[in-house]
Amino acid sequence: MQNSKKDSEVVMPKDLSKALKEAPSVISIWEDITPIARRDFITWIDGAKQTETRIRRIRIARDKLMQGERRPCCYAVVPMNLYKALGNNPKAKAVWKTLTPDERRDFVSYLNDVQDTESRMLIIEKICLLLSQGKYHF
């Protein structure tokens, strides 16, 4: 028996569904993001311990989607070329594992600010060098 795409996805909470329906342009964006990104948003929202926090996270998720952001704040995706470079540098990888989510996000954000391939590769080298020297910031 094969799992369908729908079977592997997390069920959208009713309160999130209602908030997205209030901003119709967000529905198509939600459907366009990957199942993993949808899961990350839902997990982040469901992780709220207080009702007020949950409501705020739903609003933030809707706003982020409207602004073109495809992930919640706390789920920084490591670009594949940085991931591979860390895998090839054991010292840098060891330090990377000790970084807080905010510190990792800072490195990823710095890298994502650059678009051309050559510059990105230079930044990846710099990140690996800094990490291998035990430095946590630029």
List SSEs in N-to-C order. Answer: HHHHHHHHH
The parts where pLDDT drops under 50 for at least 5 residues are: 1-7
What is the subunit arrangement here?
A: single chain
Give the total of domains: 2
Helix content estimate: 55-70%
User: Structural class per helix/strand content?
Assistant: mainly alpha
Average pLDDT, to the nearest integer?
86
Shape field:
elongated
User: What proportion of the residues form beta strands (DSSP E)?
Assistant: under 5%
Extended strand count = 0
> What profile does the largest beta sheet have?
none
Report the C-alpha radius of gyration, rounded: 18 Å
Please report the distance between the alpha carbons of the first and last residues: 50 Å
Q: How large is the count of helical segments?
A: 9
Short synopsis of the structure:
The protein has helices at residues 5-8, 14-21, 24-32, 35-46, 51-66, 80-87, 90-98, 101-112, 117-132.
Account of the 3D structure:
The chain is mainly alpha-helical and 138 residues long. It folds into two domains: 12-66, no CATH class; 80-132, no CATH class. Helix content is 68%, strand content 0%. It has helices spanning 5-8, 14-21, 24-32, 35-46, 51-66, 80-87, 90-98, 101-112, 117-132. Helix 4 runs antiparallel to helix 5 and helix 8 (101-112) packs antiparallel against helix 9. The longest helix has 16 residues, at 51-66.
Write the layout of secondary structure elements.
Blueprint: H1 5-8, H2 14-21, H3 24-32, H4 35-46, H5 51-66, H6 80-87, H7 90-98, H8 101-112, H9 117-132
Helix pairs in contact: 2-5, 4-5, 6-9, 7-9, 8-9
